[in-house]
Amino acid sequence: MPFKLNKAKVAAALKRGRYDDLAATGFGRLDELMAFLEGFGMLRLLSGIKDELVRSGAIPRFVLYNLMALKVLLGEDSLLHLSKGIFRDPGVLRAIGVTAAEIESGFDTTRNKKNNKPFHIDSVRYGISKVPINEVKQLFSDSVALLKAGGWLRKARTYVIDSTKIEVLGDYEGMGSLTTKKQVVGKAGEIKTEFTTKKGFKLFTLAGLTDVGPLVVSAHYCAIKTAEVVGADELIASWGPNWRRKDLLLMDRGFLDGKRLFDWRKRFGIDFVIPLKKDMDILRDMVGLSRMGRQATGKRGGTKNKPDLVVEGYSNLDSYESYPGKLSGIVVTTYKGKKIEPEKRWGFITTLSATTPDQALAVYDSYDQRSRIENQGYRELKQGFELPRFFGKDTRSQYFHIFFTLLMYNMVAAYKSKRADRFIGLGVRRFRSDFIGLAPMVIIYAYPYFAIFDIRELVVLLGRPPTGNLDNVRIRYVR
To answer: What are the Cα distances from residue 47, in Å, to 5, 64, 329?
Structure first.
């Protein structure tokens, strides 16, 4: 017969001193991550947010922002789910700074009744809506500065610019609409034009490729119809002082703009690799040069006569009219062992050299790194971090959600690395001196029932309650 969850039955058994077994449980990995955030300085940044909270009975600021950080980490996909998740776990509530008295009675006794403890969900929404956009952006910038100071971006010499559409249902402040069309074949074989309209936003990110994966260093959030090159301008400019000569920038063809590429290279000394559109003159020119034998041919895999990959490199190209300078380029002529007809070949332009077979292959390989931002970046942000799920429909709540999610995505990536150990150690030492400790959870088995209690509940049920002298003391992670 399987055990059944019944807290009332197990509590009654505990009071009689009759239970069969127990086991400790809790958020051990979460404790360690919070220690990292403390030692790293992230929680100090959260406590420094300058908001516009004025309503009496509001959630204390650092509690609110620690709560939002944990929301991202624990996968609570909406504010409503908080009431069934974080709000119900005394150990986690104590971790974000809620006192025992507040867990019991709530922050605002007028609103916090029954299932609205320790705070009403509307109080959370209100608090988020009172954080100015510039404060959220500054918080994100400061967090990136911490990553840079901690060494995570020291070896990042390759960056990826990308964008993702965030579609929404209903009316959101500041949203835009984008209508696209495509040709489809009808049932009778006729050609029809279909129009599709999407509503929502677009997020542009600039990510540095590091040993822990792509770390987002700059972001631009705007209406869905914003052109790719406009978003790219914002990212390049915001990261301006941090560019180093010969940093490599990877983008998809949606960001093609010769004048901008030339300007970025002239101002910051950065290189780039970007794929060409099939109807571009510079691609046709490279295909023509191939017939004349004026290329550096790099081969890889397969056999000598039937390689898996063949790329051709070209130098001193000047047929990209909007780019006032010389470029290099490569064209893929064999892919996965199959030769590609001239009219179907694809290629890239770059400021890197492609005069030798090895250099041509190196250009191809460098762009292949861009897939990491798609696989490790946006897919993780959308699926693992619930990027499309907003806190509210007002602009401030949107920015708070987007930039908080990006921030915690970076922090989790940094935490997974070996470099995080020294920050975890620092955070733990601070906890030992400043923090009484998280109450671990305990599973109690009283056949045929089981239930989960925190230590405080357990000792009360066993007839040895705490004195209550610390019930009104707020346990803070941040000094």
So the answer is: 39, 10, 50
Q: How many CB atoms lie within 10 A of CB 293?
A: 7
Instruction: Please give the mean pLDDT across all residues of the chain.
Output: 81
- Alpha carbons within 13 angstroms on the beta-carbon side of residue 175 total 20
Q: What is the mean pLDDT of residues 451-479?
A: 69
Q: 446 with 20: CB under 8 angstroms? A: yes
80-111 burial, b at 16+ Cβ within 10 Å, e below that, comes to ebbbebbbebbbbbbbbbbbbbbbeebbbeee
Average pLDDT value for residue range 384-410: 85
Q: Which two tokens stand for residue 239?
A: 């990261």
Look at the block and give the residue holding tokens 């974000």: 96
Angle subtended at Cα 385 by Cα 381 and Cα 388, rounded to the nearest 5 degrees: 75
| C-alpha dist (Å) from residue 424 to 296, 371, 417, 419 | 51, 31, 11, 10
- For residues 314 and 346, is the Cβ–Cβ distance under 8 A? no
Radius of gyration from C-alpha coordinates of the chain: 28
Tell me the C-alpha to C-alpha distance, in Å, between residue 387 and each of 138, 166, 273.
20, 8, 28
Pick left, alpha or beta for residue 246 (phi over 0 → left; psi -120 to 50 → alpha; otherwise beta). left
**Within 10 Å of residue 172's Cβ, how many Cβ atoms?**
19
400: its two tokens = 């708070």
Q: How confident is the model at residue 74 (pLDDT cuts 50, 70, 90)?
A: low
How many helices (H) and strands (E) in the chain? 18, 15
In the block, residue with structure tokens 């993780």: 380
The secondary element (H helix, E strand) that includes residue 217 is strand 213-223
* Identity of the amino acid at 172: Y
- The burial class, CB within 10 Å (0-12 / 13-18 / 19+), for 309 is middle
CA distance 151 to 144: 11
Closest CA to 284 of 251, 325, 314, 324: 314
Question: Which segments within 351-417 are labelled E, that is strand?
Answer: none
Task: Let me know if 204 is exposed, middle or buried by CB neighbors in 10 A (0-12, 13-18, 19+).
Answer: buried
pLDDT for position 443: 76
HSE of 39, CA atoms in CB hemisphere, 13 A: 23
Rounded CA separation 129/138 (Å) = 16
Name the pTM for this structure.
Answer: 0.78
